[in-house]
Amino acid sequence: MHPYLPHLLADIAAAHRSTSEPPQQHEQSLKVHFEEIERWVAGEMEEHTLGYYSGLESQNFPPPGQFTQKELRIIWDAFSRMLSSWNASLDLPKKMPLHIKYGFMVGMLNKPFMVVDHGNIGFDYCTGYAPGCELKEYCPCLEIWNKPDLPVSG
């Protein structure tokens, strides 16, 4: 086992969103939710990164080549649970190798992030424009972009 793995897992566990706040009334929390949406649409929400909110820093994650596949899976699962505590998820293609997913996972810490109390913020890195997609050969849109144009009937 990589000697840094227990420390990294402890940091990820500590980055879970606190659930110690008392639950709000549904009506009040829904009102707050819509106020947040209105402020976000108006560009009034200050954007911080996931790292800012969680306390995790991307530079504290060693390169993926230092971990075994099993260790990468453990880190991925722990990070996914932490994301879930923030009502967020990372959706990457199943065929993408874990060491590449790890890079996207760590990169999330530097991306703008909006904390939500309702719903889920999903990160998938796909812009729909396959030629410039960060996912490269794993882009789910690539197959559609590479299809020859269908003949137009008229």
Fold and architecture overview:
- The chain has 154 residues and is mostly helical.
- It has 6 helices and 4 strands.
- The strands form 2 sheets. Strands 1-3 form a two-stranded antiparallel sheet.
- The relative contact order is 0.15.
Question: Can you lay out the helices and strands and say which pair or pack?
Answer:
Blueprint lengths: L4 H10 L11 H16 L6 E2 H5 L14 H17 L2 E3 L7 H11 L3 E2 L7 E3 L18 H4 L9
Parallel strand pairs: 2-4
Antiparallel strand pairs: 1-3
Helix pairs in contact: 1-4, 4-5
Provide the domain count. 1
Query: Uncertain spans, ≥5 residues at pLDDT below 50?
Result: none
- In the sheet with the most strands, the strands line up as 1-3
Number of strands: 4
The largest sheet is: 2 strands, antiparallel
Q: How far do the termini sit from each other?
A: 65 Å
Order of helices and strands: HHEHHEHEEH
Strand content: 5-15%
- Based on CA inertia axes, which overall geometry fits? flat
* Residues in helices, as a percent range: 40-55%
Q: How many helices in DSSP terms? A: 6
Mean pLDDT: 85
Q: Helix/strand-derived class?
A: mainly alpha
Rg: 19 Å
